[in-house]
Amino acid sequence: MSNFRTTSVAQVRRFAHWQDPGEAVTRAFGFTDGVLPDDQQVVVDDELRVHLPGKRVPLASDRRSDWALFCQEHFGLQSRFWPRFDRHPLNTDFVWNPVGADPRVLSEAEVTQYNEQGYVVIEDALDQSFLEQLTGELDAHDADRLKTLERKGNTEALKKISFSAQPSRQMRTVRQLSVLPVFQHLGHDLIGPDVRLYWDQSVYKPARCTDPFPWHQDTGYTYVDYQQCFTVWIALTDANVDTGCLWVLPGGHRVGTLRHAKSEYGNVVFGEDPGNMIPVPVRAGSMAVFAATLPHMTGANKRGWTRKAVMLEYAPDGMNRIAVDPWGNRTKTPAAYLDSHYQLLRDGVPTSLSI
Ligand SMILES: O=C(O)CCC(=O)C(=O)O
């Protein structure tokens, strides 16, 4: 028998996405007026099903991460399908708000996948000549970094993953990339009418770099008051399980920001691999678009060449960083640096940027 807890209909109704079964189902379970009374006892099990006591067929069944978190927090019930979630202390009330009501670039199927799984892949988003130009310029940027490391005799760092923060500040091609129509339209579909670039970086994983980049959420670095930002991970070289592609925990975005620990390679949300993780291989020029709350990691690069990617993160205009000062007070500051976090969509209309 699975692990279970007995509770009441009133308690399960406190879950933000709870939906009572339809009248026909409720009647079939013997409630002749078709209504489940608040004080009706129900049993919730670790497969995230809700039963009436003694009934074999469940009243409801919901495998989503936010229901798992609710069961964990309200009933002390650890589900079989998800890792233990530990909320970020400032994340007290996150509820996933479905996006993509009137999509411009995503198909209905992609909108559904994004809301349910937290990511979509867009194949061949960049044309070949732009991809080559972008990669060439980022390579030159990385070559400078490598030379400096060599000069300093820092041979260990040469073998590790390397990040170049905000190349858009220096490189026009990265700025041009970040405002491509596909990103303006994605901003509209996944955020709304007013969208800014929030972050950009290149990520190079050298040949035979065996260190995975650990599980984290992109919101796990700086707490912000809007958690449904999105990240675009663009492959500059083919990325698959042998070359260090992304792995994601599909559906894990719905719990909002979790507590992260510090590690050598950045913030970590899960100490070990969660079950149900899947790889997201993408070929050069294609990209994974994912919710900033989606737990993800990248694996080892077993090949003899560098895996290269560039990442862009988008947020709504007006988003704030929230921090807690040493006296325990919450402080709020605008998340955007207006010079580099330019606005690419205003009132739903692409802005005319001179970049
Ligand atoms: O591209 C990688 O290897 C990992 C980058 C990443 O997930 C991040 O910086 O958030």
Automatic annotation (TrEMBL):
InterPro entries hit by this protein: Phytyl_CoA_dOase-like (IPR008775)
Keyword Oxidoreductase: yes
Keyword Signal attached: no
TM spans (from-to): none
Source superkingdom: Bacteria
Keywords in alphabetical order: Dioxygenase, Oxidoreductase
MF annotations from Gene Ontology: 2-oxoglutarate-dependent dioxygenase activity; iron ion binding
UniProt-recorded name of the protein: Phytanoyl-CoA dioxygenase family protein
